[in-house]
Write a structure and sequence with these properties.
The protein is of the alpha+beta class and 149 residues long. The N and C termini lie close together (7 Å). The chain has helices at 5-23, 29-44, 86-92, 113-117, and strands at residues 48-55, 60-68, 72-74, 79-81, 98-100, 122-132, 135-145. Strands 1, 2, 3, 4, 5, 6 and 7 form a 7-stranded antiparallel sheet that branches. The chain contains 4 helices and 7 strands; from the N terminus they run ααββββαβαββ.
């Protein structure tokens, strides 16, 4: 899942730019978000992709769409709260990607180990902020199962 960060970022940027140019003006936001998640999952061969939206000035993030290659679209109501995961929230709000080849031991993601990573069999992840008007609007989260990367 996690390739060199430059290769991944470039490929992801190209796919997102293609989607934005082709579809943003012609589809509803929910359809667009689902298409983005599906494109990322397929093109980068990622086990699980989710898109999260910041809520209440980043007091929490809420899952907008969750897509697993093996299961398809999942409709789990998921919210994560800043007071429970302060290192992650502080890091993601900087606007920089979090690349966690070993998410259970990475400083910014290890807070999720017991409540999110272990129950979902996630070992590696990369979270990319979605910027809107120079602020983090949400996050694209790419997750890998079964082993660290």
């Amino acid at each position: 899942m996690i390739q060199s960060s430059n290769v991944l970022s470039k490929k992801l940027s190209q796919e997102l730019e293609r989607l934005v140019k082709a579809r943003m003006r012609s589809v509803a936001l929910t359809d667009f978000v689902l298409e983005v998640a599906d494109t990322i999952s397929e093109s980068l061969k990622i086990d699980r992709v989710s898109i999260w939206r910041a809520q209440n000035n980043f007091e929490s993030i809420e899952c907008v769409v969750l897509l697993e290659q093996a299961k398809g679209i999942l409709h789990e109501p998921l919210s994560l709260f800043a007071n429970e995961f302060p290192n992650y929230f502080k890091a993601i709000q900087t606007g920089k990607a979090i690349i966690a080849n070993d998410a259970r031991n990475h400083f910014e993601t290890k807070e999720f180990t017991d409540v999110y990573l272990v129950p979902n069999n996630i070992y590696a992840m990369i979270d990319i902020p979605i910027m809107l008007n120079h602020q983090v609007w949400g996050i694209i989260c790419c997750e890998h199962f079964d082993s660290i990367r």
